[in-house]
Amino acid sequence: MLKIRVLNATLVHQLLTVDQCIRLMHRAFEMAATGETILPIRQVLRTPDGRGLLGWMPGYIANPQWLGIKVISVYPENFGTSLGSHQGMVLMFDTRNGAPVAVLDARAITAIRTAAATAAATDVLAPADVHSLAIFGYGEQAHTHLDALLRVRSFEVIWVWGRNFERARQFAARCAGERGVRVVALAEARAAAQADVICTVTAASEPFLRGAWLRPGQHLNLVGSSVPTAAEADEQTIARGRVFVDSRENALALAGELVRGQKPASVAGCVGDVIMGAVSARQAASDITIFKSVGMACEDLLAADFVCSEAARLDAGVLVEWS
To answer: For position 50, what pLDDT does the model report?
Structure first.
């Protein structure tokens, strides 16, 4: 009798800690750099009314061996509701016989692994002696990124900027109360851009972060846009930085910041290349490093593998008789 384990968002959050996921994302970057994963470029179907889209990310990982796919809908108008902007499932398949093994909540997996990947990249690329962090955005990913980045660096102050200042102020007050750190909302994006580490997690379609605002030695994480028609940072930002990506092929196909100019932006390497010692993060202390994230299926599969293993150990979730 074939049985499938079904794991909802509550269980994913219970079983997958941020610290564990950061370690898993280091491994995902290594996999992408060493060819231990197959990562077809993500495909997207947009609804005729333009309100949402459906995306799917298939993938294969070699160790542990899995076939899988994440299918996720993105409806920005759900912001602030119980549904959230991202909803979907991660489907896991046995590589020996193709049998389906598990279904996991994709919103939870995505929220945790995206922030953990940013934290892992920051740990590899950012200077050790940073003091300030700027979060551009105030949605679910802003929450998870703030939490994850505090695991890899100690910040004396965290600045928050968003198009709606009142929402940014509420987000800052909530995070300061929850985490016991100094979190301050700023009305001007330019002021926030002076932080040692910058993290953009917005739904912006046009650039709001300007390269002219940057100063030497900063580290940037550009996370929010992952379609070629959208970008959070302008061309000068990319031109001033030393750019690293999660997956070169996927980034050059999907990252608006890298493809919107007259010619594709140059990429210094993948984060995994730095982890493996093939490329240096910085050639000088004054370098501005940039991590451009578009997400990788191997991140989802490694996170899902860990959750599935923990669920099996604890006999958690629901086993559904499938055939």
So the answer is: 87
pLDDT of amino acid 263 = 63
Residues 312, 7 contacting (CB under 8 angstroms):
no
pTM of the model: 0.95
**118-292 CATH:** 3.40.50.720
First to last CA, the chain: 6
Tokens of 250: 């996927």
| Cα(190)–Cα(268) distance, integer angstroms | 26
- pLDDT for residue 79: 77
- One-letter amino acid identity for 209? L
- The hierarchical CATH code for the domain 3-110+297-321 is 3.30.1780.10
- Which regions in the chain score pLDDT beneath 70? 261-264
pLDDT attached to residue 78:
87
* Domain map (residue ranges) of the chain: 3-110+297-321, 118-292
User: Do 3-110+297-321 and 118-292 fold alike per CATH?
Assistant: no
pLDDT value of residue 145: 97
9 token code pair? 């968002």
Q: What's residue 194's pLDDT?
A: 98
Give 176's contacts (C-beta < 8 A, 6+ positions apart): 182, 183
Q: Is the peptide bond before 76 cis (omega within 30 degrees of 0)?
A: no
